Amino acid sequence: MSVPALSINNLHKSFGPAHIIRGVTLDIEPGERHAIIGPNGAGKSTLFNLISGGYHPSSGSIKLRGEEIGGMKPFKINRKGLSRSFQVSNIFSNMTVRENVRCGVLYSMGYGYGFWRNVGNLHDVQRKTAEILESVDLLDKAQLPAALLPYADQRTLEIAITIAGGADVIMLDEPTAGMSHSETERAVALIKQATEGKTLLIVEHDMGVVFNMADRISVLVYGEIIATDKPMAIRGNEKVREAYLGDEADAIEGDAA
Ligand SMILES: Nc1ncnc2c1ncn2[C@@H]1O[C@H](COP(=O)(O)OP(=O)(O)OP(=O)(O)O)[C@@H](O)[C@H]1O
């Protein structure tokens, strides 16, 4: 068997007396698209922050391709090939769309951020930047200041920046939050295309998105994973229906069937 892209073992996190993550164990295979779902306050963002280095685990282990990363600084984890987006937009609004993506590309190639002004001649950087912009369908808006993009395009740019760093494990926190139905459909297609071959971990409230995108789903309730399975099995899981999805499960659209 291959080494899991991410391997979480008996992970706990408490804030003072509040025990928020309560023994999470989960393996995510290389190339898998995995979604974490669960009610508000279940601990999804906390789990994301633990994996990407925002929080120190209280106990337990988090391994990236077999290497322990629990408690490492976020930039070190990023350097090891794990990149995450945030719910709150992370883009440089005064820079153009192209410059924003270029920053990520430069970073992945080992250049400092201060180098970006002189990169016009760096062919490999230009090519990689254009490739990413094309994969998320933003090439025709590359010269615009990021602040002028419509909201859905800003979220897409955020995803492009996350991918530009060259990581092969990508974590997206509610990538379609605030988007209309048609914008969401487009974003899902772009995310699938842009993360092809990479390992993807998402937190998402839109069940249409989750069931369309994920190979497997984990359901987090009160800091514990109550089920990890393929979308169809999650939809039919009695425990999951009781704790979270309820009758909504029957109404979920998706090609998971
Ligand atoms: N830094 C912190 N200090 C204290 N409590 C925290 C901290 N971060 C999160 N919590 C608590 O942990 C619990 C889980 O929060 P978290 O944001 O991880 O849930 P979530 O599943 O992401 O919720 P939502 O779906 O609403 O985003 C909440 O009760 C929250 O108040």
UniProtKB/TrEMBL annotation:
Keyword ATP-binding found: yes
Q: Keywords in UniProt for this one?
A: ATP-binding, Hydrolase, Nucleotide-binding, Transport
Output the superkingdom of the source species.
Bacteria
Give the EC number: 3.6.3.17
Domain ABC transporter, residue spans = 6-247
Task: Name any GO cellular component annotation.
Answer: plasma membrane
Entry-linked InterPro entries: AAA+_ATPase, ABC_AA/LPS_Transport, ABC_transporter-like_ATP-bd, BCA_ABC_TP_C, P-loop_NTPase
**Do the record's keywords include ATP-binding?**
yes
An example molecular function term from Gene Ontology annotations = ATP binding
Record-linked Pfam families: ABC_tran, BCA_ABC_TP_C
From the Swiss-Prot or TrEMBL record, give the protein name. Answer: Arabinose import ATP-binding protein AraG
Species: Thalassovita gelatinovora (Thalassobius gelatinovorus)
Provide the organism lineage as a comma list. Bacteria, Pseudomonadati, Pseudomonadota, Alphaproteobacteria, Rhodobacterales
**Gene (UniProt):** araG
